[in-house]
Amino acid sequence: MSSPSNCQDDAARYPSNTGDFLHGAWPSPLQAADVAAGAVRRTEPRIAGAWAYWVEERPLDHGRGSVVRVRLDEPGAGPVDVPHSAEADIRTAVHEYGGGAWLPFEAADGSHFVLASCMSDHRVRLFDATGAAAPCAVTPEPDIPRGLRYADPALVPAPPGGPGGAAVSPVSVWVRESHDGTGNEPRNELVAIHLDGTVSVVATGADFYSSPRPSPDGSALAYLSWDHPNMPWDHVRLHLVDLGGGMAVPGTDRVLVDGPALSQPAWSPDGELHTVTDVHGWWSIHRVDTETGATESMLGDAAAGGEHGREFGVPAWVFAQATYGWSIDGMLWCTWTSGGVGHLGIIRDGQLEEIPSGFTDFGRLVVTAGGSVVTVAAGWTRRAAVMEIASDGTHRQLSASEPSALEPSDVSVPEPFTFDSNEGRQAHAFFFPPANSAVTAQPDDPPPLMVLSHGGPTGSARSSLDLGVQYWTTRGIAVVDVNYGGSTGYGTAFRNLLRGQWGVVDTQDCIAAALHLAAAGAADSQRLVIKGGSAGGYTTLCALTGSDVFAAGISRYGVADLEALARDTHKFEARYLDGLIGPWPEQADLYRERSPIWRTDQLRTPMIVLQGTEDRVVPQSQSEQVVAALADAGVPHAYLLFEGEGHGFRRGPNIVAALEAELSFLGQVLGFEPAGDITRVEVRGGRQQQSQ
Questions:
Q1: How far apart are CA 535 and CA 487, in angstroms?
Q2: Domain residue limits, the chain
Q3: I need a surface site. Which of 148, 362, 506, 657 has the fewest CB within 10 A?
Q4: Residue 164, pLDDT above cutoff 70
Q5: CA dist 358 to 344, 345, 374, Å?
Q6: How much is the mean pLDDT over the chain?
Q7: According to CATH, what is the number of the domain 4-35+406-670?
Q8: Beta-carbon count within 10 A of 84 CB
Q9: Confidence check: pLDDT of 58 > 70
Q10: 686 φ, ψ to 5°?
Q11: How far is residue 318's CA from residue 313's CA, in Å, rounded to a whole number?
């Protein structure tokens, strides 16, 4: 790694009157404000009657979650917000990561309602979808403010012939997380909630619960549970309990399937139970015998073995995920990942048929009464949008259209590749070369490279257009998004490569990806940068304290002290490190060995650190330890602390400030002057490279 001052001679390569620019200084059509405006997060499409619903989290509205709906039987209809008060924020903090905060339903008279948890106090409220009636709280006021949290609801179908022929009963089953304000671990349970506010416990005693799913006739409830130290992608139990009037029948709860990594229990229209399991080494959809608990792959035993490299499941970081669902006539829609890229298809008679939709990334899916599917879909050149897709691949966009800040010629389309890493291991990545139609790149001048390390670490790089990536590629900086060992989408064995090896395998693979591209001439070996958030921030810190490969680093709310994380983190991840590192405190020495904060004497690479004050996953103190170490060592660094932000930046102004600060920082360290009017970040310590 060269010192920052070695980049000073670069300015001589580009006479200012030629129209050529330093990499990093390319004039980009994409501004940080465009990234923030395009960061509207659409999730969890659902169906009620002839309407499709979803949630939008809008950075320009303080990241607030709003429910949106559109009629499916009116092709020209546009989306409308479900009216609720300005302070309502449809989200939940169960497991801290949330998901599944709401559900819509159609009453017997055709009117529509939304049951939703609101972040302001975590109470469940009933909203009239048209705004004809004021919202009303359903769950009682907790003894401790915000002490009861709710997630992952499902309505219990009414018995046939119920009053008025109602399609649903006034009972829903939720995961409830109870906090007592003492600092003890919260208690997780399943509860039945009646619209009159009555709450009764359905299941209790396990450390965690998810996915309560009533049978089509309302006579039984399937659900998942697991205990410390397991995570939901390790070992999970599938239960079945009889229901009566929406209540659990005492003495009928039994475990149908005891592991391994189960997720997404769901019932077919004819009352057969299914789940996603990795029993054969890849997540696949299985039918479950409700008498014996035996499972059978929907694709047959050969395909279940994973010979085709398809992964039909995703890690359960959030609630209410769905990678499969049925049409009324029994057609099974599904999504899967292969080679890190998403696919959509239909299973008929044990055969998988891919639907040529043109998209490469899919979120939760739900099937309409007409047999089409509604999902959040994206492509390499298309931002995520709520789409209705037919079985022939034709589709229409349901969410609002947004102007694009990028022309197709300015979009960097990635090149997937597999590369060799340490000890004969291989890893995977997407390489995004610089792309900007207004700039002519110099063929003999490889660009700087930004290595992205995704979070989790049990996660993956997304296979879709990310304006946060294009922000860099349009400025002449290449990006590689690494699916290191431990990532999902490549089978159980690959996912388990991080067992006991976090901070080792992920770091090695990110370094190997950078060196591979530099050796191929696709990146400048003297201008390699690594960036990550959360677990990816930990990998960034490990790379910077354990190697001299990188010229700069960017850490967003990164883990620095594993012992502090083990002591202080929230319940959901309280024992996550048992599998990634080892049991604590029994292996305290290993925790210190793997903690970047204990190796800060080796930290000599300029860094920018970004953190939110309300982060309950990686507390502010972790980032401040890193900043203090950088200051003590005189290493060039910058630190941005965002008031009110949690684990991830949701508010538009903060998204803008973070990106511009990172760009300004890299310009000062790597020796280029960013184009356009951006706020210059203050870099402290050492001598920064100036390119004036």
A1: 12
A2: 4-35+406-670
A3: 657
A4: no
A5: 10, 12, 15
A6: 92
A7: 3.40.50.1820
A8: 22
A9: yes
A10: 70, -165
A11: 13
